[in-house]
Design a protein that fits this description.
The chain is α/β, with parallel strands linked by helices and 383 residues long. The protein has helices at 10-31, 38-51, 62-72, 90-97, 116-123, 148-157, 210-219, 242-253, 255-273, 300-309, 339-347, 359-378; strands at 55-59, 79-84, 101-105, 132-136, 161-165, 173-174, 177-178, 185-189, 203-207, 278-279, 286-287, 293-296, 348-351. The structure holds pyridoxal-5'-phosphate.
């Protein structure tokens, strides 16, 4: 069976901007400033302007962005950092790598994002004796910003820094404020499959705080001080390649159009599938970046197989919650456990989603899916 579409069609975008992109990359090859070349600062200015943040600091990838954000606040051993269990491993990995303790919090079933009540419950418990509650990292799963107003209220009460893991939500807005301005510090990823992706690894950090921005600029360059061989602090080597910055400048130029093109596609899925599957619910005032279009299905695995046989690629983000992973099972959890994270890990399935998904092809995907669900009901395997 030939594939109906790619899960994320990067080639469609390449057909659109290929020549301009090739020229932008050729300019870098010609000037030869591969590390911290002029495109890096230009991209940072454009990224900051795009989301209305005072500072954008690029780095090597989205995982480093999280680690740098934690380092900029001096978070380390003895500190507790509250993270959802239903996310990519980077969120807890960055916490563990600075020596702090990730504490796993549950999610809400219809938004897939951190449950503020579970966060509050986790804060009410003393973990491993005397950990200091230092930060919370809400994740904007599938492109929808977490409930920042509710999380901010809890964070203020407990003096937590809020670090938004916006790897999947760059371009989204909450009450007319863009991602990048919704938390004390926001991190994102330019991994190719993210809403704004480059041609390799890349990441960025956003903040309105001048002091944190200055520390971040130093940390990513080996803790650099006033000049090249002056090291003020222990840092890391985490720069965005000039070539990737050049790629991102070209992609950012069409990014708003792409973000808009995702909206009717997501709406068509929502309208066509809400009677047969669990669809995500947007919180009030949100425009999602729709990085992924995700359903909740009782019989996920058999539906995924039927789709595959009909030429429709799917993906599961994520099949195992972090608190069940070998690397993270020993860390503390919210007192009521993480039942929603566990349930969603069994039931979620993401459909093809990208700005160039043709309405006709999408119609076929929807038809195939509805057929698979009906067949499933008839054979009584559902539930
Ligand atoms: C992709 C992703 C990251 C990590 O980004 P990299 O650039 O791959 O390091 C972190 N958090 C979430 C939620 C992600 O989806």
């Amino acid at each position: 069976m030939t594939r109906l579409t790619a899960f994320i069609d990067l080639q469609a975008q390449r057909r659109r901007i290929g020549p301009r992109m090739d020229e932008a990359m050729a300019r870098v090859l010609d000037h030869g400033k591969f590390i911290m070349g002029p495109e890096v600062a230009e991209l940072e200015d454009r990224l900051a302007a795009f989301c209305g943040a005072k500072h954008a600091i690029t780095c090597a990838n989205g995982t480093d962005a999280l680690q740098l954000a934690l380092m900029s606040k001096g978070i380390g051993p003895g500190d507790a950092v509250f993270v959802p269990s239903f996310t990519f491993a980077s969120t807890s990995e960055a916490v563990a790598n600075v020596g702090a303790t990730p504490v796993f919090v549950d999610i809400l079933p219809e938004t897939f994002n951190m449950d503020p009540a579970s966060l509050r419950a986790a804060l009410g418990r003393r973990h491993g004796g005397d950990l200091n509650p230092a930060a919370v990292i809400p994740v904007d799963l599938y492109g929808q910003p977490a409930d920042y107003p509710a999380i901010q209220a809890v964070a203020e009460e407990f003096s937590l820094t809020v670090i938004a893991d916006a790897a999947q939500s760059f371009g989204a807005t909450l009450k007319n404020r863009k991602v990048g301005t919704l938390a004390d510090i926001t991190t994102t990823s330019f991994f190719p499959a993210k809403p704004l992706g480059c041609y390799g690894d890349g990441g960025a950090i956003f903040t309105d705080d001048d002091g944190i921005a200055a520390v971040l600029r130093s940390l990513r360059l080996h803790g650099r001080g006033a000049h090249k061989y002056d090291h003020e602090r222990v840092g890391v080597n985490s720069r965005l390649d000039t070539l990737q910055a050049a790629v991102l400048i070209e992609k950012l130029a069409i990014f708003s159009e792409e973000a808009e093109a995702r909206q009717p596609i997501a709406e068509r899925y929502q309208a066509a599938l809400r009677d047969v599957a669990g669809v995500s619910k947007l919180i009030s005032g949100v425009v999602s970046a729709w990085a992924y279009y995700t359903l909740v299905l009782e019989d996920r695995d058999s539906v995924a197989l039927s789709l595959k046989e009909a030429g429709v690629p799917t993906a599961i983000y994520y099949p195992k919650p972090l608190h069940r992973q070998t690397a993270y099972s020993g860390f503390p959890r919210a007192p009521e456990g993480l039942p929603v994270a566990e349930e969603m890990a069994r039931k979620v399935l993401s459909l093809p989603m990208h700005p160039y998904l043709d309405a006709g092809v999408q119609g076929q995907i929807i038809a195939v899916l509805r057929q698979a669900l009906e067949a499933d009901l008839l054979t009584g395997t559902k539930g």
